[in-house]
Amino acid sequence: MSSRGFHSSPRFVAAAAALLATAFAAHVPGQQTQNKPPSAAASEAQDDEAFAEATEPVVERVCVQCHTVENFTKRRRTAKEWNDVVNAMQGRGAVATDDEFKAIKRYMTRYFGLVRINVASAEEISAVLGLSPKTASAVVEYRSAHGKFTDLESLERVDGINKDKLEEQPEAISFN
Length: 176
Prior knowledge:
By secondary structure, the protein is mainly alpha-helical.
């Protein structure tokens, strides 16, 4: 199975509990806390988790109705391939709104996607790896100036890249 697991991993549960505790403490009346603005990486992670939390029930309702989780997580696909798979599901009668189908495509691309880092656009890099558009553009610019990436270490040389995000999903990156 993939590193993502419909939020069932102990690491996610611990992180979610810590996030909720922090959010609760920041909003307790009469308690004064000094809240620092979140870093860009922390903000991206929170946005990523909020999207996943909102979309997973839709994926479960629409996709898991006909397929096991393992069926769609056993092989990573490019953004185009996920688009084609979800369009085929829709053509075979899967029931969801247009916005839900868009969210499913985005979810599958983000959590079960594959990016061919040496040819992908900034948009695809951002969609699969969860990097900001600015950072994904920096990857493309670096690639143009320095040539193809050969491994994770070479990709980590890009200024501003979130190394933790790359290291938690190395199977999402193809260097071929």
